Amino acid sequence: MKKYLITGLLIWIPLAITLWVLELIVSTMDQSLLLLPPRYQPEVVLGYKIPGLGALLTVIVVFVTGVLASNILGQRLLMFWENVLGRIPVVKTIYNGVKQVSDTLFAPGGQAFRKALLVQYPREGSWTLAFLTGQPGGDVANHLRGEYVSVYVPTTPNPTSGFFLMMPRADVIELDMSVDDALKYVISMGVVPPEPPASKTRS
User: What percent of the chain is helix, strand and coil (3-state, nearest 5)?
Assistant: First the structure.
């Protein structure tokens, strides 16, 4: 009986968590309907609520924004908007910081996480997965002797939080592993090991 219960849980838990995450995403995106005037709310016009309509509206708005920002007029409007935000003291700091991070993470061809690494952290003899994010720059680089790299060490099972380190290149080991496989390994807390390179080649 215990065996059957565990087998059933292994089937239902991933499905339940997947549905919960999707429901959370859709319900959050549905909040975009609140931007519409009250009399134009779908619930008022149609008389009933349509789940996911706000998510569709969000996707359309994001797509149209991308189309408009891809032409010359849209780029000028975007520059004007950024100049306006740049004149507001507190907003300027928050907006510029978030924009730099989002441009790095989501820009086409971006390499926020360039390579999977093996580093000793938090102490010598204790190893963990990390990601190469670049090289130290600015005045920081002037105070580092030798060749250093910028490294992001994610926490598990939530890799969106972690630690930023600058380590000597000689102290990091580049892995023959894709960034996606390394993230899966971190999220699973080491339960789902990545496939060896040889098996990937055969597949």
Answer: 55, 15, 30
